[in-house]
């Protein structure tokens, strides 16, 4: 608590009493803690690839390295610079989502438009992993959403499903009307998420397996973007998952 005190006087300057104002700082302290943790995480996430890039470039400049090693180092540098770019893209995206919810314009449109645009974006990655995406979309199902943000949320879910699923598996996308809104569901046959990690999974930089996420080019920000996008829509993102069986992520978009 933060306490301010002041003495109160009436119009004739007689002392009336003391005014004590107590501010509950719990929320403030919590937010400040989250901000500090976020900054520390960002620094760490950016510094790791930046330091690696610098180290490999220094080695290339100052040492005699074989052609073979040179190619290997350049590939590592390329991978780390891609990583830096992804982190920056995701951070800029999150920053852009910090505006008030009401500044985003929603439209009503066929959910098939959303699904085909998101699927197109991930199609090359899916093909590389021989992953088939199958659809069960209600005919004429309409969604009330911000088209680009909804596309971003669905793309993030799909690219996660591709990243964390074995070659040759199937991803199912379905839609259904529920409680005055539309549910979009993405189901995969991937590695799944242990129950004890499911609550934190939507937090920034949280990953179940840091190494695996890194290897897959993950930033740890994808699901926090999904969560923010769904908050903007007044909806939510939920998860049901079983280790080694697969995960189902659901996006709920309230109606108009
Ligand atoms: P990342 O860039 O690491 O994928 P996300 O915020 O998108 O970051 O996801 C956070 C973590 O949640 C991932 O690192 C992974 O451990 C887990 N995860 C997300 N989606 C899936 C999925 N479909 N199957 C298994 N694990 C997943």
TrEMBL record:
From which residue to which does any coiled coil extend? none
Q: What is the lineage of its organism?
A: Bacteria, Pseudomonadati, Spirochaetota, Spirochaetia, Spirochaetales
Q: Which residues of the full protein are shown?
A: 330 to 585 of 585
Instruction: Indicate where this protein resides in the cell.
Output: Cell membrane
Top-level taxon of the source organism: Bacteria
Can you say what this protein is called? Answer: histidine kinase
Every copy of the Histidine kinase domain together lies at 41-256
